[in-house]
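Show me any protein, fold above all:
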Amino acid sequence: MPFPFAANLSFLFPDLPWEERIAAAARCGFEGVELNPPMPYGVPPQRFAALLRDEGLGCPLLVAPLGEGPARFGHTCVPDERRNFRASVMTMLDYAVAAEAPLVHPSAGLMPADVARADAEAIYAENLAWAAEQAEAAGVRLCVEPVCELRAPGFFLQTTTQAIDLIACSGRSDIGLIFDVFHVEMQEGSALAALPALLPRVVHVQVSDTPNRHVPGSGTIDFPAIFEMLERGGYKGWIGCEYDGAESEDPFGWAAPWSRAPLALALGAMSEGE
């Protein structure tokens, strides 16, 4: 069963202005795009929606705006950031509704200094519950993503076990899980071993290879086995391509067996004037 693929515009087409990356993704055959902050918050929600609509692309996932200082990786677990957290969630939902994005993600943030882990977990769970309620009212679904220590030292949510436990603490069983194959492999040892038990909770999958977050097939992860498991498990969501493909002559060819639409590097897609 082929899957819809989305280009992560924070990683792919880095030499282009971010608005032009949307058109570049369409030229390469992607069916959608996903973005990390500060994208797309530099333009009004309707402008972002129009950019997608003009290229016939979807946006399967939006991440909430990030903060500054202790909240630079997200507000969700930070005790003194509740007002900013709620404002960021409402902004995210405005964009999600305009762009018809089905999933939204408020990043957990860094483990706060001088705060007990149990207190940070209570704050995180409470904030998740509030955000899930707002998301439900807006017609979208909240999800969370663990991030490995290597990519974000001190990140609050690092493992899928932590994610599932804290979703339970929030009392919101509708909160989904982003399964980033790279983060799980780096933090937990084997994404392939972790995936079967998590599949019922997984609402979005992101791919890149270890150890450098490059093109799948360039490193150590068995992506054919990952995709076979997704197929057998009945996964029906998107695949987000969240990797650095600038050094590859064929950054999308690896996806041919699994992409619903054929992907190919279009002339001029990776940089201006190329």
